[in-house]
Amino acid sequence: MEEKYNEYEQIRREKLAKLRELGADPFGQRFDNTESLSVIKSRYNPENEEQTVRGAGRIVLHRDIGKLIFITLRDWTGNLQIGLSKQWLGDQWEVAKLLDLGDIVGMEGKLGRTKTGEITVWVTSFKLLCKATLPPPEKWHGLQDVELRYRQRYVDLFTNPEVMATFRDRSAIVQSIREFLTRRGFQEVETPMMQSIAGGAAAKPFITHHNTLDMDLYLRIAPELYLKRLLVGGMEKVFEVNRNFRNEGISTRHNPEFTMCEVYQAYADYRVMMDLMEELVCTLVQQRSQDMKLEFNGKTIEYRQPWARKTYAELFAEHVGCPMEQIGEVRQKARQLGIGEATKDDSVVVNEVFESCVEEKLIHPTFVLDYPAILCPLTKRKTGNPAIAERFELFVSGMEIANAYTELNDPEIQEQNFRVQLRGQEETEAVMDSDFVTALKYGMPPAGGLGFGIDRLVMLLTNSASIRDVILFPLMRPGSHV
Predict the structure, then answer these.
(1) Residue 221 in contact with residue 435, Cβ under 8 Å?
(2) Which of 93, 106, 288, 291 fits 89 for a cystine, CB–CB 3.0-4.6 Å?
(3) DSSP-derived secondary structure letter, 431
(4) Rounded distance between C-alpha atoms, residue 284 and residue 279, angstroms
(5) Is 48's pLDDT higher than 90?
(6) Is residue 59 scored above 90 in pLDDT?
(7) Helix, coil or strand: residue 25
(8) Rounded distance between C-alpha atoms, residue 141 and residue 264, angstroms
(9) Secondary structure (3-state) at 228
(10) Torsion angle of alpha carbons 212, 217, 223, 227, nearest 10°?
(11) Cis peptide bond N-terminal to 478, omega within 30
């Protein structure tokens, strides 16, 4: 493959030299007053084939038939055919004969049709804006090798229009989320990505070092504790679209660097957050499907309201076959599932059995609520039943999409929970966020908090099977670029 690329690159470099001999700039200059190719195409009027149009794009098809060259240009909105004729181009014809697949050109001409009826711009002048010295994938069938697609996303985007559409859709989804929350009175904020204490979630952090202060810092695993400090400060409805970093595994659902949205509302609880999440997702689905159904991973997901709301305990009993309180039976089930349970706390075993037996069964949107309190150190306990935390997780197609709490605002209980949580952590990470406890002592209003994974939500909305399909540059092992 490398020898083949070197051969093609050498041919293109020879053309590069010829272009310079002709006085053409192979890497172009600014090209103003253009319209997108889809807009140009939409302007076609059979009663007026003298419209002058101006656009730019990459060459994705190239047919040289002597004194006429047909080219298909592609920009991020679509494709458009252009026709170049020796008769019309004069001195530019020699440059036109040196064009290749992958080159980027700007053009101006008359909008019309060919004899076969295809909308075409009959070019009166053009400019080479960038000569591609490497060819695109063979025969322009698109970049198919999955590993190479992620590694060379820049090629994936311009060769596979459906990939470009996914990422344009992702941007629109994030914008819709922001608009949805802003219309409901939430204010977008930014909190630190480098933190002196790793907190807000149970996850392995990435560690970095600040030279001037000679101190280790952690890339945030969650913004939660800073956002709740803002509730203490009187900011009553806040959200952040944030990057989180977790030094953990990679899979079709996990990337070490990922995007979340966290939302906090004073004087609310987890049921308010449940309603908010359901309304948000349904708003996004409705923008894509009038019948509120979307395909994902070979299944049709029904998003029509109301969504199922079931407790952790009832789902456990339904799918495991015994109540979660019968720990002997639960441990036996764990052994059957191949879970090493002997040295683990009861609560951990219960949750691992839940993850193995229940989550994959939750295909249509389902809120799982009222988790065992021991699993939720930042969550308020249920009134009258301190063993249960007011927490929910939203599952769709067996995948966790959101997590929410009625936020714990009692500083004494919070400090106790932190101490219990720290017992199982490595010494380098076993530091309690005492400033957060201090913040709670000044008084945080009762509140609901919600976090949802934007990458996974985009997966559902765009029918993308892997999280790598919705992250422009997913983390990859070092490797060759050709």
Answers:
(1) no
(2) 93
(3) -
(4) 9
(5) no
(6) yes
(7) coil
(8) 47
(9) helix
(10) -50
(11) no
Q: Tell me what the mean pLDDT of segment 377-390 comes to.
A: 93
Query: Residue 1 — very low, low, confident or very high, per pLDDT cuts 50/70/90?
Result: very low
Closest CA to 306 of 367, 223, 215, 231: 367
What one-letter code names the amino acid at 115? K
Q: Is 423 within 8 Å of 415 (Cβ atoms)?
A: no
Please list, in sequence order, all residues whose beta carbon lies within 8 angstroms of the beta carbon of residue 79, skipping any fewer than 6 positions away: 37, 60, 72, 73, 161
Distance CA 310, CA 438 (A): 35
End-to-end CA distance of the chain: 8
Mean of the per-residue pLDDT values of the chain: 92
If you write DSSP's letter for every residue of 102-154 in order, what string do you get?
Answer: T-EEEEEEEEEE-TT--EEEEEEEEEEEE--SSPPSGGG-----HHHHHHTHH
The token duo for 218 is: 């952690």
pLDDT in tens, 23-37: 999 999 999 999 999
How sure is the predictor about 428, in pLDDT bands with cuts at 50, 70 and 90?
very low
Which of 310, 244, 307 has the alpha carbon at shortest distance from 281?
Answer: 307
Residue 440 and residue 409 in contact, taking contact as beta carbons nearer than 8 Å: yes
pLDDT of residue 46 exceeding 70, the answer is yes
Indicate yes or no: pTM above 0.70.
yes
**Element of type H or E holding 244:** strand 237-245
Cα–Cα separations (whole angstroms), residue 146 to 2, 152, 434: 19, 10, 46
Which residue type sits at 133? T
Q: CB within 8 A of 435, min separation 6: which ones?
A: none
Burial of 110 (0-12, 13-18, 19+ CB in 10 A): middle
Amino acid at 320: V
**Tens digits of per-residue pLDDT, 104-124?**
999 999 999 999 999 999 999
Q: What is the rounded CA–CA span in Å between residue 303 and residue 365?
A: 7
Beta bridge partners of 68: 85
Structure tokens, 337: 């599932």
* Distances in whole angstroms, Cα of residue 121 to Cα of each of 52, 69, 87: 9, 12, 15
Mean pLDDT value of segment 294-311? 97
Could you read off the pLDDT of 259-296 as tens digits, one per residue? 999 999 999 999 999 999 999 999 999 999 999 999 99
Alpha carbon distance 268, 275 (integer Å): 11
pLDDT range class, residue 419, cuts 50, 70, 90: confident
Which amino acid is it at 230? L
Beta bridge partners of 110: 52, 122
